[in-house]
Amino acid sequence: MFNTLYGKLAALLFGLFCVIGSVAIVLTLYATRLYSQEVSQKLNRTVAEHMVSDKVLMQEGRVNDEVLKDIFHQLMVINPNIELYLLDPQGAILTFSAPPGKVKRQRISLDPLNRFLSGDEDFPILGDDPRDLTHQKVFSVFPIETLGGSIEGYLYIILGGEEFDSVMQMLEQSYILRLSVWAIGAILLLTLLAGLLCVKLLTRRLNTLALAMDTFKRGDLSAQPNVSTHLDARLSTVGRGDEIDQLETTFARMAELIRQQVCQLKETDQLRRELVANVSHDLRTPVTSLQGYLETLLLKEGALSSQERRQYLEIATTQSKRLGDLIGELFELAKLNSQEMKPRIESFALGELVQDVVQKFRVIVEAKQVTLQAKLGEDLPAVSADIGLVERVLENLIENALRYTPHEGRITVILSRMGETIMTRVSDTGCGIPPSDLPHIFDRYYQVGKSHQRGETGAGLGLAITKRILELHGSAIEVQSVVDQGTTFSFHIAVAKPGIIRVATPAAEYSSHK
Fold this sequence. Notes:
Layout: H1 5-43, H2 47-54, E1 58-59, E2 62-63, H3 65-78, E3 83-87, E4 93-96, H4 110-118, E5 126-128, E6 136-145, E7 151-158, H5 162-172, H6 175-218, H7 229-238, H8 243-299, H9 306-337, E8 346-348, H10 350-360, H11 362-368, E9 371-376, E10 383-385, H12 387-404, E11 410-418, E12 421-428, H13 462-472, E13 477-482, E14 486-494, E15 508-509
Parallel strand pairs: 9-11
Antiparallel strand pairs: 1-2, 3-4, 3-7, 5-6, 6-7, 8-10, 9-15, 11-12, 12-14, 13-14
Helix pairs in contact: 1-6, 6-8, 7-8, 8-9, 9-13, 10-12, 12-13
């Protein structure tokens, strides 16, 4: 039980109430004693004064024994708890009313007597007890003066003798005190029970949360439901909630986040498996082909004609280039996905870059008998981006368009101003993309169905690289396609803030077709 939060709080609360109860009882008894002493001293503060005024206790420095005996006898009859002591001016005890052998002090300290007589100090004021060397008691005192006003001595009266001590002990064991102690104990017990109930109510939600966390830990994380829904609904009705409500909400949202991350990890693992399979397949094909032709060259070195040898070498070179391109794209995508990859932002004219990229494809488009043209808007401002990465995006999109555009087809790169960005569109008149394939064309190694491919097939990394580059620039790529009519890819690049670089020619076009 004490291993739980409730058990620890209950033990702490019980110990605290025991300490408080003990202190309360001790303070009650102590306050009762002080109150009794205060009342006794206030009621009898003038007893010594009246005795000194009515009787002649000393004459010419000598004690009047007859008068003292008479006073002692009267006081014993009226109040046996009172003890009388006659002191000289220095506080030495001259005579007393106590039985012989009981008095253990020879002198009484005058400091408490002077404080009593001054009247400047609150009661109770305790003075020396002649019968005990270690205790003090309440008293009444008054000086005995001569006719000339000098002090001959003091009448020192102890208001509570040994009999009074026994009465106090009986009082401490009396019904009233016992009732008070039991009342204090009952109040503390009820308060303790109420405190334990409150602690139980407060820790109940923590226990529920701990159970939910333990269940979540031992359960199938990917199958956990969204447990934050009812908490969010409750907090929306009661406000921000206390710390436990916030802890519950935080855990619920954390659990949902973990569940999503586990699902993502499973999806990523599945994609990794598919990636390994696709990479293995794509690497195995050119490697097998390259190996086969090279082995053929070695085995039939003397039997092959120069034309056959050249044909085999060209095929091997093509497969080698394909293998190199695939490996290069893998490294490029891995580099783009690394956390250290940061674009080198600079201002440049996007129109000039498009013209340069179009010019690079001059030989390819002539060989394939397609038209590649660039349409640039007028007065286009400079953009802020990594010029090398943007060039790679344009190359990938144009290569992708060339792969699926038939002979006599057309590829168009269009630039236009859209607010604080320049929109780039790469359109083709190719075979188009089926609607079922559109959501997946930017996935690694995803390729459109073979029935829609015309020409070479790529490794399936170009569009994934393109998407990642644009993500690094805070942009996205969009695609629109109609089967057998063509496809258009579009993206936005932010306009440069410091200045504007004008494009030299408002439009540029390169076409090649037979």
